[in-house]
Fold this protein.
Amino acid sequence: MSKLLRPWRDHSFQLLALALAIAAFALSAVIFLRAELEQRFSVSTAEALGGDLVLAGSRTPEPQQLAKIASLRVSQIIDFSSVLVHNDALLLVSARAVDANYPLFGQIQLANDRFADEYSQNKGPAPGRVWVADQVIDRLNIAVGATLTVGSKALEISAIIRQLPDQNAGFYSMNPRIVLNSVDLAATGVMGPGTRIRQQSVVAGEPEAIQQLALNLDTSLRPDQKLETVADAALRSLGPLRQLSLWANLAVLLISLLCGAAIYLATAQRVRRRAKLAGLLRSFGASRYQVIAQLLGWEFLAILPAVTVGSALGIALINLTLGTGGSLPGPSMISASALEWSSALFAPLLLWLAFALPRLSALVRVPAIEILRQRQQSSVLGTNIELLAALSAPVLLAGLLTASLGELGRVLGLIAALGVLLPALLWPLIKSLDLASARLPLAARLAIRRLSRRPALTLPLLVSLTLAITVLTLAGQTGSQLLADWRTRLPSQAPNHFVLNLFGQDMPALEQWLEQHEAIAQPLYPVVRGRLSTINGVPVKEAVTKEKKSAQRHLNRDLVLTEASTLPSSNRINSGRWHGADLRASALEQPAQLSGNTALQRVSVEQEIADRLGLQLGDQLQFVTSRGLLSATITSLREVDWNSFEPNFYFIFASGELAAQDVTWITSFWLPEGDGARLAELLSELPHITLLDVKSLLDKAQGIIAQASQASALLGALLMFSALLVLAAGLLGGQQQRGRDNALLRALGGKQFLIKRILWIEFLCLSGSAALGATAISLLALYPLNERLFQQGLSLSAWQALPLALACIVTICGLLASRKALQQPALSLLRSNED
Amino acid sequence: MNSSPMPAAPPPPSAQRASPLLEVSAIAKHVQGPEGELTLLKDINFTLSGAESLAITGPSGSGKTTLLGLLAGLDTPSRGEIRLDGKTFSSLSEDQRASARGATCAFVFQEFHLVADMNVLENVMLPLELAGREKPAASAKDWLERVGLSHRMRHFPSTLSGGEQQRVALARAFAVQPRLLFADEPTGSLDHANGKRIIDLLFELNQHSAAALVLVTHDPQLASRCQHHLELHEGTIINSSFADAKAVTASPVEKAIPHE
């Protein structure tokens, strides 16, 4: 036991243990946070998808496919279009027939009245019952309890649908939705041969089983079938979740790097202290193995408590923040896999081994006499190869932990390369300062010499300080930018209602109503319904290849066309040019040759539908509308954030190009909390409009943003914590040497004022150089970060001044940390040979 | 009071002693240990004039280094008074003591204590610069020449042998032309031959500079080359050549000192 406690008496070991404990804390916290986020957002994605895996097709899956999925939890869903009949009124609807297992994930939000409060339910309607969307109630002017007919089956309305868990915010079909029990499907008689349906087999299971199933099914897919899993769900392609996932990976990587740097600095002190023991052991004839065992064995056991305590605290932090004690909804206790538990414990130990081993092995490699004479200090304390090994260890560790090194490779490569290259560039600067220092005052000369003539101490500290300041700057800037980005994306007054089917003459009434209820409206978009008929003059059924049959559902229904002069804020041009710009000179602008009686227009197409239909820039499309044919050339392809709660469209024409069409209007607005009577008032005044309440969807999306924001802030805090650890390790690490220097100066007659000035200048030069490097790195890192995280300009801001501010703080902290060194009595110089 | 059976060496010029440079009056040093107050030194009295030399001897733990630290103003006594050149040294502030030390004293340490990241010339220049002397480089070169190291001025301490490092330390000490030189076991880290060369050099330089010398040593031969001798045992003077030094009955240690 006393052997275990012995290292703790040494100040350098205490520093190393503290660095390891904090590293374990930060690493375990970030590992658990990331695992928790992955799990929660994977659940969110699965909810949005309906299950962990969805096999969709235009008819029932093959028997062998059904056999493959039978061992897992499965829900069968059939989507089809139908006509509702109530008294003499007819209404075209999007119907969904669900079985007893629906929904596999999440809750269905229902209401008993048009404007009543919603409640949750976790199973579909009972046989003989039907749930309908608000619009059905509005259009048919009926209430819950009424009976309506689907095909030849009469069904009783038992609830109004507010939100289905797998209903996303994209508006593809504007037909109102109904849900019925699949037991009633046969009795409706609507499922005859040739009926267009979308059959979904939704499966839930463990990730490994789902992965295996996806592989099995992939080989047996029919042309009409499509397989989608949580892993490749489109929901993650853009938006806060993807950003957060990248941000979490980046944080894991940087925290590993920073903790590694802190351990490196702390190990340097410890190795210095152990050098004498190594020299003595070797002079006594101990073998290399014995020396390593003596140096590493007990040390390893002694650091275990520090690592364990650090890891436990990190895990406790995440449990308290995201678990029971936290403000976020979620499981009461973080559930982590064995991999996460072992990563949390072993990651800091791996870092320690990576840093301690090369340095301790140097004690075995260098001749004992050199160690005892304290010569070849740089050989003992680290070579360039060891520095590189030390830098690559946390990088590899981060790669293993995140399994996404490739994705962040550029950012990491930049930081690592510059972390090594910049000191290599700054070093000649410091050396040239040394040469020029002959004319400087004594204090400056002595300070510069301390830095320039101790490369083994100065270089690692310079690299670490540069990295720490860079990370602090980037964490601050990126974190705040992410939060701002998300706030912009879903502001507190994001639209919670959509209005469709507005006519020109409805505008005054709508505007008056909006004003009266302090609602905030988005721009109005004209809507024209049209069906895609030809692509480059070839009828779509021939133009779309057999492999693209999954796109059939886009072809056999009315599509929503609109026009706009400015690109909606939630859209981004992937290729081509937005038609707001003057395209008259563009090569894409070819005269229409397809149908002589139509003028050629310009249209911007959403990227995903373009991919499904095999559309490219310059392709010529022809739509059939109520006014005849409408032709257009594709001038741009757009990526759309469907989660933005703004009206979004697959096809946007140039402004004015739909003027000759039959147009209705669509808009969205934010309505403050209040009772449903206000909406009833609007509907009674404009009975033909369609009013969609997306409050539930919005709440869900805002909940995700809130979670992402909290997680992002926590990641930022952990990053800053790790960076501060590096600073502390760097500043505390050199105290012994500074103490000796100061004691000697005092013995030779140096005054306290001079010694303080030397320290000031030393820290200013050190942190100033690091700030210079950090500014350069963070400016260069803006480009890949910008590209990966934000997809748009990450502009220069006041954050760029942070390195300089940090340099001042580091200097002050350095001086505060050096108080003990300042007070070291000159008598200590005599005590080394105390009688 | 017993007088020391000191060897021949230069006789104490008590009759013609110049004005006192270092006056030590009844100093004592106590520290707080785990088992209460511990007395490191008590009742130390003596006066040293310019150009005189004093050897402080005694077994390990007798308080030699503690006394040297107090004399040089690196530490302050718990009781009593030390006057350096007429000024009460022990009542000065840390900075004032450093200033007085820089102007009057120099050190030679057992472990050399050269600044590892300064070359030989810069090491010798350091105290001159601290004292604000004119043309420190010229003076430092001159002293390096005197210790025979002018050819290694640009070398760093780690490339020098122990003897060479101590020669640099001697040059650094004498370069400021001190009136009082403290040497703490100057040969403790050297072999016999090198140690002898260093001591010869130390006394030779001291003779030319006419500085007073306070030398802590275990080596009786070395002690015998000084004019005065104080022998300590458990913090108390047990043998002294000073008339005013307080000494107790000679201990067996004292009797064991060989005489040459």
